[in-house]
Automatic annotation (TrEMBL):
The keyword RNA-binding does not apply. Residues 11-127 form the Response regulatory domain. Gene3D superfamilies: 3.40.50.2300. This is Response regulator transcription factor. GO terms for molecular function: DNA binding. InterPro entries: CheY-like_superfamily, NreC/VraR/RcsB-like_REC, Sig_transdc_resp-reg_C-effctor, Sig_transdc_resp-reg_receiver, Tscrpt_reg_LuxR_C, WalR-like. It comes from Ramlibacter lithotrophicus. The lineage of its organism: Bacteria, Pseudomonadati, Pseudomonadota, Betaproteobacteria, Burkholderiales.
């Protein structure tokens, strides 16, 4: 049964690093009355630039993208444009991902494997009520969850862990973050001690599980 038309014209900026995924979502959204995709981005930096110049009503973004990821982009957009609604469209269904997204400003979370009608439902719900969560996500949010990376580590430690998991050496990390290699090594030792992990492989697996880097 087709839902009633949206009460307003909804301008959407869509972000995903896979062109085929963006094309599919854009095609589905084009069939929704009152909804228009006005621009597309393939990474977080490009997304922020588009939002700054276009100020859309709604941003739909993936989390895992090259360069600046979706979570970082969401936080930046929320700070600059608090009126813009931010809806995550992701393949990851862990509570950790969802909580990180929401903590940074997302108001909804939609699974990529959701049926097509749910895309329209999510857009309408976010614009009308300010939030939407896929049923599987809503159910998991009600269940007890393990601590997130942000609960277990400081902001700087999370930043360094992400770079370690991307295969960066201490000197590279130090240069990128404006630290000394020795400081990076101290942070790495503290991260390992805090997480009770003993090698880079284990740190990388942790980072992937917590949604800090792509698998």
């Amino acid at each position: 049964m087709k839902m009633s038309p949206t009460p307003q014209h909804v301008r959407v900026v869509l972000a995903d690093d896979h062109e085929l995924v963006r094309s599919g979502i854009k095609s589905l959204l084009s069939m929704v009355d009152g909804v228009e995709v006005i621009a597309e981005a393939s990474d977080g930096s490009e997304l922020i630039q588009l939002v700054d110049s276009l100020t859309p009503d709604l941003v739909m973004t993936d989390i895992s993208m090259p360069g600046m990821d979706g979570i970082t982009a969401i936080a930046e957009i929320h700070q600059r444009h608090p009126q813009v609604k931010l809806l995550v469209l992701s393949m990851y269904d862990t509570v950790d991902f969802v909580k990180r997204a929401v903590a940074n400003g997302a108001c909804g979370y939609l699974m990529k494997d959701a049926p097509p009608f749910e895309l329209e439902q999510a857009v309408r719900s976010v614009m009308a009520t300010g939030s939407y969560y896929s049923p599987v996500i809503a159910q998991r949010l009600l269940q007890p969850s393990e601590p997130t990376a942000d609960d277990e580590l400081t902001t700087r430690q999370v930043e360094i862990l992400k770079l370690i998991a991307q295969g960066r050496a201490s000197k590279e990390i130090a240069f990128e973050l404006g630290l000394s290699p020795k400081t990076v090594d101290v942070h790495r030792a503290r991260i390992m001690d805090r997480l009770q992990l003993n090698d880079i492989a284990s740190l990388t697996l942790y980072a992937v599980r917590k949604g800090l880097v792509k698998p």
